[in-house]
Please model this.
Amino acid sequence: MPRELDPCAIAERSLIKKYRKTLWNPFIAAVKRYELIAPGDRIAVCISGGKDSMLLAKLMQELQRHTEQPFELVFLVMDPGYNPENRALIEANAEKLRIPVTIFESNIFDVTVSVDRNPCYLCARMRRGFLYAKAQELGCNKIALGHHFSDVIETTLLGLFYGAQMQSMPPKLHSKNFPGMELIRPLYCVHEEDIIAWKNYNHLRFLQCACRFTEERDAAEDGVGQSKRQEMKQLIKTLRQTNPNIEKSIFAAIHDVQIGTLAGCKFAGRRYAFTEYYDRLGQGGED
Model:
């Protein structure tokens, strides 16, 4: 009689069986394509308690088990001021999925709740700073965040429509304020809808962003509220009706930027006007 698997074993098995093509393969593709992990790395997997970071933790565990190039993992949870119920949910999920979390606390929610302009941006920046500092304290050289393919597409559109710039979310970057530290995004090629499918298949309930701005969005009849990112989700959903490949096209575009066709660009902190590189284009222009 076959041994009955517990919820954690079922969730792990589903990653490399049922969801191999949609989760495991894109995860491995991103790790390899963008060279996110190197032998000897000590990586802090940052867990917010949501579906994305919890999935990331499980994928990183699986990779660590099967890789021939060893690296270390620390599963880092920052409590920015969750209520007791939300904190308990994170701890319960970590125990159920056998993720050995290290929890530390901050006062981020107290700080951002009184901010009217760009509170989500401030919250994200503060979270990242606290995570970098704690990870460095624990001897890590990288932090891994749960941003996925859909986040990349939405960020690209947000920058274009509201940031007045053509920018995206890179798969990895060096920290400016914490020398020697890097941020990596191993879910870069994983679609959000596939993360949701894995969550639902395993009957898992994860934490939503537990702040007042999310509550306002959820209470809004349009499902958007003050969230520009949610607005981008709705826009992409609409565009997909006439162009099912819209997200793939945007993703491909950020890998093939034609600098020579732009009126200006910025690299390594310096702005370049079109006139500075126009002559270098030579005879490649159109008549």
Notes: The radius of gyration is 20 Å. Strands lie at 42-47, 72-79, 101-105, 142-144, 172-174, 182-184, 264-267, 270-273.
